[in-house]
Amino acid sequence: MAGLSKTMLTAVKWVAKRILLAWERLESGVSLDLTSSAFIENPYRTYEQLRRKDPVHRMRLIEAWALTRYEDVQDVLVDHRRFTNAERNYDYMQYRTFLDLDPPDHTRLRGLVSKAFTPRAVRELGPRIQELVDELLDAVAGKDRIDLISDFAFPLPVIVIAEMLGVPAEDRARFRVWSDDIAISVVPLLDSEQIARVQQATEELFAYFEGIIEQRRQAPQNDMISALLAAEEEGDRLTHEELLSTLMLLLVAGNETTRNLIGNGMLALLKSPVQLQRLRDHPDLLDSAIDELLRFDSPVQINSRNAIGDVEIGGKRIAAGQRILAMVGAANRDPEVFANPGELDIGRDETSHLSFGRGIHYCLGSPLAILEGRIAFTSLLARFSSIRLASEPVFKDQIVLRGVEELWVEVEH
Fold first, then answer.
1. Contact 405, 180 (CB under 8 A)
2. What is the pTM of this model?
């Protein structure tokens, strides 16, 4: 009977979903299903339809508005006085990082963490990142077929952030599970199983950090956990809960976005062999290439906000408290801003992508992600005379933090 009830409930949900999506299509001529496997694999066709037919789109599967024009997305991201992060969490979430706060708490916490990401601090990490890249590539020497994600794009940023925090890099297999599960918390629509995964991963990661924190209280070291324990700004220290949530944010954000930059970026290059060869021939284009890879297939596709008061965007009235999904991936392909936005062009002059956000929540770790990307792409092209797709990539089953789960390639040394 229980099995039958579950089956019936699934059928009812499926029918309800179809009805709501049909309602969207009747209203606007287009619908948006963030959970669709086709959308997860390639969201850009849907973005184009939304931008053309209904750029300020009322979603019915969730109570939210989806924005797909560059100007609208940028306006929402920079205006923290009208659009807040502070109300975006669901009740089941057991933490609030400084991404979920507005000033003054956001300013205080970001200021404490930002000391580790100054240009000088990041620059000094360069030699160690190069060592790690060389070690990972040495480990696959002699192989003619590798998974660029598990062999390279995942372990690199995890080891870097683990060493910065002062936690053992050998625990990275556990970090991957925790990070992948916690990362789904940013998805706008979760089922009960996903919620349970988020909760369990958070509890396990917090318990893990508790042990490291206690060790650092007894014997401080030259790492971020020790620095955050000692951090004080205008007499205001981190609370214990803020410390845990900040460490969790650094671990998850520090590996998810960089992993996706390397994975999505290499996939884009492999599917554009002319641009890949162009980068080999003109390594001076590396910086613009990384900007273009970030624009072309952004590691972060969606930023969410809530309207603080009633607002009007694109002639649509959005009520106070309603959720707004700023579709960064769509904005980065707005033809009003980028010529031929669906084409990869590593020499593109228009580099004002929104992949790191805008305003007070601009990605704190962007200099580190770019540095890791520069060293990673340079080393991959130097180490392998040829890189080719060995099979179709497998994408992670979520859209907000868009990334490749498996990227098998054939290489020649």
1. no
2. 0.90
Our separate counts of H helices and E strands in the chain read 16, 12
Helix (H) or strand (E) holding 198: helix 192-218
Counting Cα atoms < 13 Å in the Cβ hemisphere of 381 gives 21
Provide the token pair at 178.
């925790």
With 0-12 / 13-18 / 19 or more C-beta atoms within 10 angstroms meaning exposed / middle / buried, residue 68 is buried
Query: Over the chain, what is the mean pLDDT?
Result: 88
Contact status, residue 323 vs residue 306, Cβ threshold 8 Å: yes
Dump pLDDT digits (tens) for 94-113. 567 777 778 878 888 888 88
What is the per-residue DSSP string for 3-64?
HHHHHHHHHHHHHHHHHHHHHHHHHHS----TT-HHHHH--HHHHHHHHHH-SEEEETTTTE
Distance CA 294, CA 367 (A): 13
Within 10 A of 386 (CB to CB), how many other CB atoms are there?
10
Q: Which secondary-structure segment (H or E) carries 66?
A: strand 64-67
| Alpha-carbon dihedral 84, 85, 87, 89, rounded to 10 degrees | 160
